[in-house]
Design brief:
The structure holds two protein chains of two kinds. Chain A is an alpha+beta fold. Helices cover about 65% and strands about 10% of the residues of chain A. Chain A has helices spanning about 1-15, 20-55, 75-85, 150-155, 195-200, 225-230, 235-245, 245-280, 280-290, 295-330, 335-340, 345-375, 375-380, 395-400, 405-415, 420-450, 460-510, 515-550, 560-590, 590-595, and strands at about 60-70, 95-110, 110-120, 130-135, 145-150, 160-165, 170-175, 190-195, 210-215, 235. In chain A, β6 (about 160-165) and β7 form a beta hairpin. In chain B, about 35% of the residues lie in helices and about 25% in strands. In chain B, the strands form two sheets. In chain B, strands 6-7-8-3-9-10 form a six-stranded mixed sheet, sandwiched between helices. In chain B, strands 2-1-4-5 form a four-stranded antiparallel sheet, with helices on one face. The chains are: A alpha+beta, B alpha/beta. The interface between A and B is medium-sized, with 30 and 30 residues.
């Protein structure tokens, strides 16, 4: 018990001694858990939104229908209607809506021709599928049309406007939500409801179509078996809910991929922070071992510290992710109409987030921790510096070339801490990959806007809605990419600062034998920019591959010019060079002798 | 004989808790070419600080300093670095080799900095390591070398550009007695070849390799003695009494 308190106390003191390192790790892990939470919560939000609207509209459990044709006599049509209506008497049915007449007709909105699906409804509330009015009011005995909310928004129509349906000008009474179909333009043709008076005026335009019947069951989970038993059933509520969630599922998948990027970036940041921390704590580890603390207990001190950060990051990420889910979800057409509420935090989500942060922390901590505890106690007490990696054959071959002295020193310096070099390179690669994807996305969406095309756009209104949606999605994509690039920059800054501290002693030594501060800074920059250049070499092809994998059939293949790639490389090198130069110059200005103080 | 270094009224103060610490307080010093000078004194007397001032690792707060024929007390960091690579070789108690470079790379680095070709620098470095008896360790990183080997490599590095003077700060402080004896032998050989040496030490054996002894106390030189046949009795007694405890 006492040992446990001691270990926790040591861990807390370490955090207090270098709080900014703990904060950086917390920031990186929190971004990871936020992204993971978003990926998991988005689909949940979609289902909840659908359920909410379904509840408000007494949504259907099964949807049935039968067709009629223009050559049918009224008696024949009545037989079709009655036959469908009998489904309402089937066992398990507790509420019936319809049968309602429906048909697809030609329409015109502000001169734009389009197809509409018209359903004839009366003024009284339906027991099943009573659309939820969002603007104006529901149908009454007068002529009028109520538009599905997505169509009203896309076309910019308000109560009092008019639309032309089958050549007849009809006043808009309102807009409403339903779960019977997905919001326009997700589902097409767009859905409208007309009064019986309007239906009479539309006349034979409604002769080709059918009747629809909406049923609610005593147990909605029996919908699929009910559908199996009755061939007139077209859809169940599960199928419709799943179809309307397609966009949100795509968005969730994108965030799933982003979460992978973020986790990789976070591992890079954690490795650099932990390795830098371990390098500074070698003597502490030796001291602990010298006074009898076991290697396992020493490892526990480190893990306690970082697991505490992981736990906190999980809490922050779950909260932030839950709060960000609704505005993010409203980027999609469906939830822009249905709305989205903050989802509750669930155990699977919390467990997943904590598992990921724990894995990141353990992966970043175990190797340096084991190295530290396995190191001889005497050596740990004698020196606070871990010996560098021996240069391999490739490094010796490259540095054996006739290079300027600062370049030669820089390349050898890059090899000094291979783990951190690779972690830094990994973080930079992620940043450059995201940058290329963002540039390609921007180019693709701009091209789409100029061409005004949309894959599933039978009319100009849905085309404009698609483009607007793509614009929202791409804006979201740019925002997220910018945030992740910012995270990559933070990672790069951390790497540069730690590298400068790690190289400080060697650079002071070089100054004693005649290297100028300019030469030592140049050597340091060469080491850092080597990682950056390699990251460009990997990040650009990765960015191309990932863009191609997400563009679907909507955007053109990547169309960035060679000049763009070159500009990306130069801009990245310049920016990272500036970031790395600051800590390097600060160290070069420090007096030499304190940095050579006997360890 | 020409003057290698001339210091007049050299001062260096550090910020202390209550009042400034006068690490070097008005030191006048002249070292002629070929002289071997030892500087001894109790801990905190300023001998290492004086050495750092002579080598440009610290800036004086007051006074003048001339190395060779150049006034250096107001030189910039970069100018000092260029001067140091040609005229001064440093040997430290903690060796201070660049840990990512092998022994021979550490030795050839100052030569490369003055513009010597890689081939010539490698040749010179290898010759020096051979002369100092560690050429078989040339390809090893510093963490694989013993204390004595490290100091030999450091000495070779200090000599690679045939400097005007070698400044050594407690060169045997981290060595066992056998290695100490070997390094002392090397310094004696250097002295005999006419290399100008300034050695800071608290070890009488090291001091005895020099021809001249400066005793420091409280930042000032209190005694300047030629060593003909051993250390002054006063210094020996002070050391036995735990002067350097």
């Amino acid at each position: 018990m006492a040992a446990g308190r001691l270990l926790v106390g040591l861990a807390w003191r370490n955090v207090r001694h270098r709080p900014w390192q703990a904060l950086l790790l917390l920031l990186a892990l929190s971004v990871a858990t936020t992204t993971i939470t978003l990926a998991m919560a988005l689909v949940d939000v979609s289902d909840r939104a659908w359920d909410r609207v379904s509840q408000a509209t007494h949504g259907f459990h099964v949807d049935a229908g039968d067709e009629i044709s223009p050559d049918m006599s009224p008696a024949q049509r009545e037989r079709v209607r009655a036959g469908l209506a009998r489904l309402g008497d089937a066992p398990g049915v507790v509420a019936v809506g319809g049968p309602w007449r429906e048909a697809q007709v030609d329409a015109e909105i502000d001169g734009v021709p389009l197809r509409l699906r018209v359903e004839v409804r009366d003024a009284g509330p339906a027991a099943v599928d009573q659309p939820l009015v969002t603007a104006g009011h529901w149908l009454d005995d007068r002529e009028g049309v109520v538009l599905e909310d997505g169509l009203a928004a896309a076309a910019g129509l308000r109560p009092g406007d008019t639309v032309t349906i089958a050549g007849q000008r009809v006043p808009v009474r309102g807009a409403a939500l339903t779960v019977n179909v997905g919001p326009y333009p997700t589902d097409q043709p767009a859905w409208v409801w007309v009064s019986p008076a309007t239906a009479a005026r539309l006349g034979t335009a409604l002769d080709e179509g059918g009747y629809s019947l909406e049923l609610r069951l005593a147990d909605r989970d029996q919908a699929e078996s009910f559908a199996d038993a009755h061939p007139q059933v077209n859809d169940t509520w599960q199928e419709t809910r799943s179809e309307t969630a397609t966009d949100i599922q795509d968005l969730a998948a994108v965030f799933g991929v982003l979460a992978i990027f973020v986790v990789v970036l976070t591992i890079g940041t954690a490795v650099i922070l932990v390795a830098g921390r371990m390098a500074a704590q070698i003597r502490q580890v030796g001291t602990l071992k010298a006074v009898g603390v076991t290697p396992g207990q020493v490892t526990c001190v480190l893990l306690v510290e970082y697991l505490a950060v992981a736990f906190l990051a999980t809490a922050v990420g779950l909260a932030a992710g839950s709060l960000l889910t609704p505005p993010l979800a409203r980027v999609t057409d469906v939830l822009a109409v249905y709305g989205a509420q903050t989802p509750p935090i669930t155990w699977p989500r919390a467990a997943t987030a904590f598992a990921v942060t724990t894995a990141v922390v353990v992966l970043a901590t175990v190797r340096p921790a084991l190295r530290g505890v396995r190191r001889s106690t005497l050596r740990s007490l004698a020196s606070n510096t871990r010996p560098p990696h021996r240069p391999g054959r490739l490094v010796r071959a490259i540095t054996g070339l006739a290079l300027p002295v600062p370049v030669w020193l820089g390349l050898r310096g890059a090899n000094r801490r291979r783990g951190r070099f690779l972690a830094n390179m990994l973080g930079l690669t992620v940043g450059i990959t995201l940058l290329i994807m963002a540039l390609a996305l921007h180019t693709g969406v701009e091209k789409l806007r100029q061409q005004g095309l949309s894959i599933e756009a039978p009319d100009a209104i849905s085309r404009a809605a698609d483009i607007a949606n793509q614009g929202r999605v791409s804006s979201l994509g740019f925002t997220v990419a910018a945030l992740l690039i910012a995270l990559a920059l933070i990672n790069a800054t951390v790497a540069a600062v730690f590298a400068a501290q790690d190289h400080a002693r060697n650079h002071a030594i070089m100054r004693t034998i005649g290297a100028t501060p300019g030469q030592t800074v140049t050597a340091f920059l060469v080491a850092q920019l080597t990682a950056c250049l390699l990251a460009c070499g990997f990040g650009i092809p990765f960015g191309i591959v990932f863009y191609e994998s997400i563009r679907g059939g909507i955007l053109d293949p990547i169309g960035l010019s060679a000049l763009t790639y070159l500009a990306t490389i130069l801009a990245t090198l310049t920016l990272y060079g500036l970031i790395a130069a600051i800590p390097a110059r600060l160290l070069a200005r420090r007096p030499i002798t304190p940095q050579l103080a006997y360890e | 004989m020409s003057t290698v270094v001339r210091a007049e009224g050299l001062r260096r103060h550090f910020r202390g808790d209550a009042e400034p610490v006068r690490a070097v307080d008005g030191v006048d010093l002249v070292v002629e070419q070929g002289e071997a000078v030892s500087i001894m004194g109790p801990s905190g007397c300023g001998k290492s600080t004086l050495l750092h001032l002579l080598g440009g690792l610290e800036r004086p707060d007051a006074g003048t300093l001339i190395v060779g024929d150049q006034a250096v007390d107001r030189l910039s960091e970069a100018s000092w670095a260029r001067l140091r690579r040609r005229t001064i070789g440093f040997v430290f108690q903690a060796f201070h080799l660049v840990d990512q470079l092998t022994a021979v790379e550490n030795v050839e680095l100052p030569a490369l900095l003055v513009g010597t070709s890689r081939r010539a620098a490698r040749r010179r470095a290898t010759e020096l390591l051979d002369r100092l008896g560690v050429v078989d360790r040339a390809g090893h990183l510093p963490d694989r070398l013993s204390g004595g080997e490290l100091q030999r490599v450091a000495l070779a590095r200090a000599l690679v550009n045939e400097p005007l003077m070698v400044l050594a700060d407690e060169p045997t402080g981290n060595l066992d007695s056998q290695a100490t004896g070997e390094i002392l032998q090397l310094f004696a050989e250097l002295r005999d070849t006419g290399q100008t040496l300034v050695l800071v030490t608290h070890d009488a054996r090291v001091a005895a390799t020099a021809e001249r002894l400066l005793s420091m106390r409280d930042g000032a030189i209190v005694e300047d003695t030629r060593l003909d046949g051993g250390l002054p009795q006063q210094t020996l007694l002070a050391q036995l009494a735990g002067w350097e405890a």
